[in-house]
Amino acid sequence: MPEPDADRPFPWAAAMGAGFGLLRLAPDAFWRMTPRELAAAVSALLPPAPDHLSRPDLSALMKRFPDPS
Question: Is the pTM of this model over 0.85?
Fold first, then answer.
């Protein structure tokens, strides 16, 4: 789940979809979880996030795929 944004409401539909559909939680277990606990449980099922792109790698990509002028 993405990081919370103060300008957007909490994504209840996505949270319930992940909790009930992906994790197959019982309703009482889902509603007892904090959003942080739910995010941790969901992230355990997702592939690991890639490392950040290094500056040399970014430069190489920019040379390989230059923006059109």
Answer: no
Give domain status of residue 33, yes or no.
yes
What is the secondary structure of 8-59 as a DSSP string?
S---HHHHHIIIIIIS---HHHHHHS-HHHHHHHHHTTSPPPPPPPPHHHHH
- 15 in Cβ contact with 38 (< 8 Å): yes
Q: Which domain holds residue 19?
A: 11-46
Indicate if the pLDDT at residue 4 is higher than 90: no
CB of 19 within 8 A of CB of 38? Answer: yes
Residue 58 lies in a domain: no
